[in-house]
Amino acid sequence: MGKINNIINEEYTRQIEFAAMVLAKPREYTELDIIEHFKVSPQTIRRDAEKLRNMGIDIHSSKKKYEVTGCTNDTLNHLICTYLALNKYDIIKNLKLIKGKYRDETLLIFVNILKAIDKKHMIEIIYRKNKDGGFRKEITPISLSRTNRNVYLIAMDNDEEDKTRVFLLDKIDDIRFLNKISKVKKYPNTFSLFKTSWGIYSGGEECDVSLKFSSETGRSIKNKFYIETQKIIEKPDYYLMNMRVKLSLEFVSWVMGWGDGVEVVKPQELKDMIVERAAKIVKLYKKK
After folding, report:
1. What value does the mean pLDDT take over residues 236-260?
2. DSSP letters along 4-40, please?
3. Which CATH architecture has domain 2-85?
4. Four-way CATH pick for 95-188: 2.40.50.140, 3.10.50.40, 3.90.550.10, 2.30.30.520
5. Where in the chain are the domains?
6. Strand duo 262-266 + 206-214: pairing
7. Is 109 within 8 Å of 175 (Cβ atoms)?
8. Of 28, 146, 13, whose CA–CA distance to 90 is shortest?
9. Is 123 a residue whose pLDDT tops 50?
10. Could you tell me the pTM of the whole model?
């Protein structure tokens, strides 16, 4: 069985690498080039091309050289995620917590969630927000997402006018798979859904934010990607970071983590949130 799985993994890996080569350099490689690169037969490469077309990648030979004329963002996302999944060194950070909850049913839980997403079935969860409280809710799962190696369930909240919610998988104390078709007619695009969210957290008011970083701090962030909407401008003695972002507690904590290396230029609401939290911290330590 292990040998069969290795063969399947090798096939998927080769097909994705084949697509990657042609996407990067269209009309560069002939069939012979691909055959020699992967050390396989012409029949194998032709089967790989057919399988890629079935995945939604319009790969074909033009004047005896390969090119791709169609590959959507969704297809590209699928290929990248599949390739990452085939990497045995990739880990799920909160898997130990998830397995502690579901034990031998852990894999089955993932399978059933994905089946529910595919069939547009509703599920019922008991979710623990903190040590003191939680809730039971029927939701429509739309995606499993991984951020910082944690697994999150993205779902539509059927009780709040189809509001989109994010649940950390290891905080779901119980899950029931319902044989009920969801009433949700239009599923949101999860990419656009979190375009202005800080990480996976979708809460907070969306605002235009401007942050002034010191030269030293700015040099450490100028080449980093934090959010789709960011724009970093280098000035003679500081760096200006502009973005459209939701003012979640996670974002406020990130800003405060830079200490006196950053100053909030706008909005005033963000300044007030930081001052309020800083005052509470000072008050806490003055007691001691």
Report:
1. 93
2. HHHHHHHHHHHHHHHHHHHHHSTT--BHHHHHHHHT-
3. Orthogonal Bundle (1.10)
4. 2.30.30.520
5. 2-85, 95-188, 206-286
6. antiparallel
7. yes
8. 146
9. yes
10. 0.60
